[in-house]
Amino acid sequence: xxxxxxxxxxxxxxxxxxxxxxxxxxxxxxxxxxxxxxxxxxxxxxxxxxxxxxxxxxxxxxxxxxxxxxxxxxxxxxxxxxxxxxxxxxxxxxxxxxxxxxxxxxxxxxxxxxxxxxxxxxxxxxxxxxxxxxxxxxxxxxxxxxxxxxxxxxxxxxxxxxxxxxxxxxxxxxxxxxxxxxxxxxxxxxxxxxxxxxxxxxxxxxxxxxxxxxxxxxxxxxxxxxxxxxxxxxxxxxxxxxxxxxxxxxxxxxxxxxxxxxxxxxxxxxxxxxxxxxxxxxxxxxxxxxxxxxxxxxxxxxxxxxxxxxxxxxxxxxxxxxxxxxxxxxxxxxxxxxxxxxxxxxxxxxxxxxxxxxxxxxxxxxxxxxxxxxxxxxxxxxxxxxxxxxxxxxxxxxxxxxxxxxxxxxxxxxxxxxxxxxxxxxxxxxxxxxxxxxxxxxxxxxxxxxxxxxxxxxxxxxxxxxxxxxxxxxxxxxxxxxxxxxxxxxxxxxxxxx
Length: 498
What we know:
Layout: E1 2-6, E2 17-22, H1 31-39, H2 43-50, E3 60-64, E4 73-78, H3 90-103, E5 108-112, H4 120-132, E6 153-157, H5 165-189, H6 197-210, E7 214-218, H7 220-225, H8 229-235, E8 243-249, E9 258-269, H9 278-281, H10 289-304, E10 309-319, E11 331-333, E12 339-341, H11 349-361, E13 367-372, H12 376-382, E14 387-391, H13 394-407, E15 411-413, E16 431-432, H14 440-449, E17 457-461, E18 467-468, E19 478-479, H15 484-491
Parallel strand pairs: 1-6, 2-4, 2-5, 5-6, 9-10, 9-13, 12-16, 13-17, 14-15
Antiparallel strand pairs: 3-4, 7-8, 8-10, 11-12, 14-17, 18-19
Helix pairs in contact: 3-4, 4-5, 5-10, 8-11, 10-15, 13-15
């Protein structure tokens, strides 16, 4: 895809579709809008009145110019009130514009920043939005049902501001982040019958070769030798063999830190013997979203020359019911040696993560993160769009949350109250794998904390934002690739973060 910048007046842009954000409290204001409306003899203002376009978020107004000016079509994108506008919303505005361009069959798309400051961050967000807004998982559709994407060029209209060298750097960075996010989406959207643990391991090996990473794949025998009793117990109910994936990125020289990123890799979760209802299983191919996130984030870090040594780890398995399944009341011995009584086989993710965390701790990381579609309770607490964050190190949590804000990925910190550990007490083992109904996201976090020791650690429960049933901005229906952008922002920050 060819990206470029133009400081020429918007009405002179030779493009098939020009998208312009407008604010509901400045609807008819702004130099770009005023210039376009004048060039079209007041047409935009009249249509705004006729169509009752208010500039509210998600409102869109499309206008065909019939060759009167350079752009063949103009799309006004409602951006809501200017006073509460967050720059991170640029990604979604650009995503909406790019999707409109795709639906219109446009070859040349232009996006105007209008009253939004044009700088390195806004350019990166707009570039990510134009790539991700056009994403569609159509691998299994008939050819005549696929929507072609003829887009050849994307121009950012800068309202008279001359292009800065750093802006092209931002475009290049955004392409890396967006492509990694799209690859993560592909993995999440892939049917579970095809994306088995073995297939996911093969995909990881392919990524390793493509991006010059080290790859280590462990099968059941190797995992048994390491004592991964919890991970293997979850896996034993399935006919599909589990795989433990470990990718490593090593920068040149002596890295100042070693970072471990762990992703939950349950490629299908039936609930095991604690069987989910049919409706609860429909989307359970997405239960490996954490693995998709870390396996693709590390590829972006490698491309950007991250200064840290980074390990991406995923314990991949299915959770299935069979005569071989682990049972309620079983006591499992973890890789750490801790014993766990099972009182719910549908709380399997924390078991796989517990052994993965123990494996990662042995690498002696300076910081450890895990990403998991772990609990429905987190969605009850925070809704479908916000990830829950828990940590044993507040400065680390603060840095992570700041990176999420910079990347435009929504996250909110939840506490880890020691008092809730009472819910995990067992009479026959060191702990149970689940607590009571209330506080379920936090008791899951407390369970994982038992395997972390003193390593600075952040747990990200992305049960909500990993997948969506409703299109929004740069986010399509299906897998979202949530977490990739925040990881990159945290571990390979832009030189001029603002």
